[in-house]
């Protein structure tokens, strides 16, 4: 591969490498999640409720990046599996909270430690120091991309 010094070429190369790395790491996560009879959105909801406690349904959608219509569908599926329960807010009956059932809590407590190890294994190609550097660089890249996106399209 030729030494790339042109900013445009390096930027495209970064995009390709970042996308491939993301896809490879996420493949580990998806395979593990599916082995438990869940899809990634269902797992994301259970994970959120496990780590953050009961959440309003509309906030769950924002945090796991799905639409309000889809969160209703996902909550229905998890409720049918007896992993999630809905509860009206005592302060505002228009607000519905989702929470883990006892069965849901036991389920996520059982599978989460292994899932965490799957993710550790997926990124073991980097040393601890390299992981710290990657976190900082990717945060910087993410914030910059977010700001430039808000500024509008390139003309």
Automatic annotation (TrEMBL):
Gene Ontology terms for molecular function: DNA binding; DNA-binding transcription factor activity
* Source species, domain of life: Bacteria
One Pfam match, given by its short name, reads MarR
Q: What is this protein called?
A: HTH-type transcriptional regulator MhqR
- Report TM segments: none
Q: Which gene encodes it?
A: mhqR
A GO BP term here is: response to stress
HTH marR-type domain ranges (all copies):
11-143
- Keywords noted in UniProt: DNA-binding, Transcription, Transcription regulation
């Amino acid at each position: 591969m030729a030494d790339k010094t042109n900013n445009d070429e390096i930027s495209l190369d970064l995009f390709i490498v970042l996308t491939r790395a993301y896809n490879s790491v996420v493949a580990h996560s998806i395979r593990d999640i599916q082995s438990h009879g869940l899809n990634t959105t269902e797992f994301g909801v259970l994970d959120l409720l496990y780590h953050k406690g009961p959440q309003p349904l509309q906030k769950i959608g924002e945090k796991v990046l799905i639409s309000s219509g889809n969160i209703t569908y996902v909550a229905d599926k998890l409720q049918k599996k007896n992993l999630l329960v809905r509860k009206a807010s005592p302060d505002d009956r228009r607000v519905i909270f989702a929470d883990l059932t006892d069965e849901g809590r036991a389920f996520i407590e059982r599978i989460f430690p292994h899932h965490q190890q799957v993710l550790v294994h997926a990124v073991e190609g980097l040393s601890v120091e390299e992981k710290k550097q990657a976190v900082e660089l990717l945060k910087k890249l993410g914030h910059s991309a977010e700001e430039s996106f808000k500024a509008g399209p390139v003309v």
